[in-house]
Amino acid sequence: MTDTVMDAGDTDAALIAQLERRAERRNERREFFRTALGAGAVAAVGAAAVTLGSRATAQSVNDAATLNFALNLEYLEAQFYSYAVTGAGLANTLLTPGSASTTTQGAVTGGRQVSFSDPLVAQYAREIAADEVAHVTFLRNQLGTAAVAQPAIDIGSTATSAFSVAAAAAGLVASGAAFDPYASDENFLLAAYLFEDVGVTAYKGAATLLESKLYLDAAAGILAAEAYHASIIRTVLYRKGLDTPSLRTSADGISNARDGLDGTTDDDQGISPVTLTASLTSTTTPGSYAPQVPTALLGLASNIVPSAADGTVYGRSIGAVLNIVYLTRLSVSKGGFFPNGLNGSYVTSSAN
């Protein structure tokens, strides 16, 4: 691997190769079951899975609505990462509505390739991009004909784009100034940080809405992947922030902006080092998060995992997630990164 980013053709090939390797591993697992159980048993398992999937779809329209909500968010993340890594968006075959869906496909505004200067950041970006494209594919396969089309998405870098509005709210740029998430490694990381933490809390919150174990398993798998992504982004920002404190301050500003949009609770956490204390309470003061820990562990610590006092990650309601992606505290049905709103049943943010 050289210190320069691969061109779009090489990157496309790398992403395709990674997805092909995953397909090979899936085929290997199937071959194992054929050998261990026999072809008849595998056929029976497959038939049961189809029946379960059909039952889950019939069991709860709400399950499909919840997965479609997640699909909207995955469209946003996948397009951002794909453009940042390859300079191009997703294939149109991944954006169209399922045959039973009446939703309208929207276009992507903005997006371009990042000229990464840090080869490590470039490699992380390629991995996450491949995962996000796979998430879109996976959710569409789970939903089948009920899959909604991609809505209109704004990932531009003009002064009026969603990224610029979010950056101004976080104090990264002045009000009315442009923020370009594709201009540097650091800007890319901050933009990714804006999305990743929201993705984790969105899946955590949506898990309580799912009735089907089949769909719950699917959501849990993506939640775990998004948590890994968020930890990668937070770790790199934390490390770079030790040398460039302003980067850490910017990340904390994004956290505060999210907290200001999604309600009255102070749940979101930045990446600044924290002081662990023996208290069970946490405060709203940055860097003062206070979980209950053994005396031997008290003192300054990193804050890679934004966990609560019990060590778990909190979830956001659908309305709270939409507050952030719409960039508003009001109850609305569009705005921010989704200028025409989401496709599907869940489209309205909360009134905060």
TrEMBL record:
The chain crosses the membrane at residues 32-52. SUPFAM superfamilies: Ferritin-like (SSF47240). Keywords: Membrane, Transmembrane, Transmembrane helix. The keyword Transmembrane applies. The keyword Transmembrane helix applies. Pfam families: Ferritin_2. This is Ferritin-like domain-containing protein. It comes from Sphingomonas psychrolutea.
